[in-house]
Design brief:
Structural class: mainly beta
Shape: globular
Largest sheet: 6 strands, mixed
Order of helices and strands: EEEEEEEEEE
Distance between the termini: 40 Å
Strand order of the largest sheet: 2-10-9-4-5-6
Number of strands: 10
Strand content: over 45%
């Protein structure tokens, strides 16, 4: 059974930073392209960042230069460092594969507001 457990969200002012963590289980984590997704109120879920098994990284245009994705295969974990946060980054953040499993976690809420 595939499971993803996200943590690290919270309330932050514009320009602030947050660090998200996710641990996966029930999947051979080393071989998947791990990814962070987000869903803002009233919007569809979107892919924010992904990291392949060889370390190749891709970002959605609006987060380039502000977000950094990384992974630790020994811990089956993926991380997202978010800097210079903007109100439009407000969303529930989820981890999954870039081609997602039908097994979404509860996500972690990120709210950027003054």
């Amino acid at each position: 059974q595939v499971q993803f457990v996200e943590s690290g969200g919270g309330l932050v002012q514009p320009g602030g930073s947050l660090s998200l963590s996710c641990t996966a289980s029930g999947v051979y984590f080393t071989v998947i392209t791990a990814a962070w997704w987000r869903q803002a109120p009233g919007k569809e879920r979107e892919l924010v960042a992904q990291i392949q098994r060889d370390g190749t990284i891709k970002y959605e245009d609006s987060v380039k230069g502000r977000f950094t994705i990384s992974r630790d295969n020994t811990k089956s974990s993926v991380y997202l460092q978010m800097n210079n946060l903007k109100p439009e980054d407000t969303a529930v953040y989820y981890c999954n594969a870039a081609v997602p499993f039908d097994a979404w976690g509860q996500g972690t809420q990120v709210t950027v507001s003054s």
